[in-house]
Amino acid sequence: MDALDQALDEARARYVAARPRSAEAQAEAARWLPGGNTRTVLWFDPFPFRAARAWDCYLEDVDGHVYVDLLGEYTAGLFGHSDPVIRETVTATLADGISFGAHNTHEAGLAAEVCRRFASMERVRFTNSGTEANLMAVAAARAATGREALLVFDGAYHGGLLSFAHGPSPVNAPYPVVLGTYNDVEDVERLFAEHGDRLAAVLVEPMLGSGGCIPGDPVFLQRLRDLADAHGALLVFDEVMTSRLSPGGLQALLGIRPDLTTLGKYVGGGMSFGAFGGRADVMALFDPSSGHALPHAGTFNNNVLSMAAGLAGLTRVLTPDVQQALNDRGDRLRSGLEQVFRAAGAPFCATGCGSIVGVHATPGPVRTVADAGAADDRLAELFFLDLLECGWYLARRGFVALSLRVTDAHVDDVVATVARLLAERAPLWEQPA
Fold this sequence. Notes:
Blueprint: H1 3-17, H2 20-29, E1 51-55, E2 58-61, E3 66-69, H3 84-94, H4 107-117, E4 123-127, H5 130-145, E5 149-153, E6 177-180, H6 185-195, E7 199-204, E8 207-208, E9 214-215, H7 218-231, E10 234-238, H8 249-254, E11 260-263, E12 274-278, H9 280-283, H10 304-317, H11 320-344, E13 349-353, E14 356-360, H12 369-373, H13 377-389, E15 392-393, E16 399-401, H14 408-425
Parallel strand pairs: 3-15, 5-6, 5-7, 7-10, 10-11
Antiparallel strand pairs: 1-2, 2-3, 4-12, 8-9, 11-12, 13-14, 14-16
Helix pairs in contact: 1-13, 3-10, 4-10, 6-7, 11-14
C-alpha cells in the first residue's frame, strides 16, 4: 500500500468513527431505498452523513458535526438555508393555501421578472426542475423545426434524463443525439457538415457545470450560434447553473443570444422549480388559446410556494449589486485556492466562473473534459474528507456553489484551511531530492 492509499484509508476510518448515528441512519434507509439513497449525486463512500438541520450557510448532521456549506445545493441553494425574505414569503403564502389547481396571483409576476432579466426569454413557461425544463426545451425545438436529433456534448449534464458525463447515460430519454467535444470548434464544424440537416437543436451549457466547471470558450459558443443559424437548428442554452453568474445569465456576459434558455431552482427561491423560454414564435407553440397548442402538463408547474418565493427572491433579495458581490466572492475563492495550490506545489487546480468553482486533483490547466479526467481520484477524495473533517462541506467531486450567506471571512478561512492541509499532505506528492 502506498502512502496515498494509506492516508485515504485513515481518513475514511476517522470519518466512520466520528459518525455512528449517520451509519445507523444509512443502514435503516437501505432497508427501503436502494443503497439508502434516492438521489445519486449525494452518495459517497463509505456512506454519506445525514443532515439534521440547516440555517444560513451551515449544516448540522445527526452526529452533531456542523459544516460551512460551500456546496449550495449544487447551485439551487443560492439564497442559503434560511433567508428571512424567502421564509417570510413562504409562511405568508402558506396561510392562503398550499395547492390551488388554478392560476394564482404570483406566476405572471415571476414570469415578467424572468423575462426582464433574461433578454432572450421573450416568453417563458415553468416546470418543476431543470431536468423537466431541458426536456421541454428539446420538445419545443423538435416541434418547431420538424427534426429529431440533438447536438450535445461529452461531459454535459442537462438533468437526470439528459446526462452525458461519460457518453450518453443508459437512463437518458431516447432522443437521437450527436455527441460533440466541448470547446472544440473543428469538431462541431465537422458534425454540422455531417448532420446539420437533421439537427433540431444544439443543447449546451455555456459553462460545463457537473462536467468540471469548465467555461465555454466564447469563440466556440459563438460558432455554435453561427452554425445553428446556418443549418436551421435552434441554440438552447442550459443556464440552470450559470444563470446566477450575472443578472442576465452567462449569455449576457458572452453577448450571445440563444433561441431557448433553461433555468433552475434558485429562480423559484430555491423551491421545486424550473423554466424554459425564449423566442416568442417558438414559445407560442404552447399557447392553449390557439386551439392547437403543444401539451405541457405539470401539477406543480405554477405551485404557489415556488411562484411567491421566486418573485420575492429575484426582486427583494438578488439585486444586481448583491449578485455581483456574490460572483466577486467566488472569483476571490478561486484565485485564493489557485495561489495556495501553486505556492504548495500541490497537484490541484481550480476552475469555474463567478460563484461556481471546481477543484480538480490535477495541476491543470483544465480546459476540456479530457483534462478533468486526468485528475487523481484518490487525491480528490482525500481533499474532500480532509475539508469535511475541518468543517467545510463541498461536493465529493470538488464542486462548490457559494450561497449569499457565505461571507468574505468564510472564503478567507477556507483558503487558509486548504493551505494548512496542503502543508500537512505535502509528502504525498513531493519527490525526494
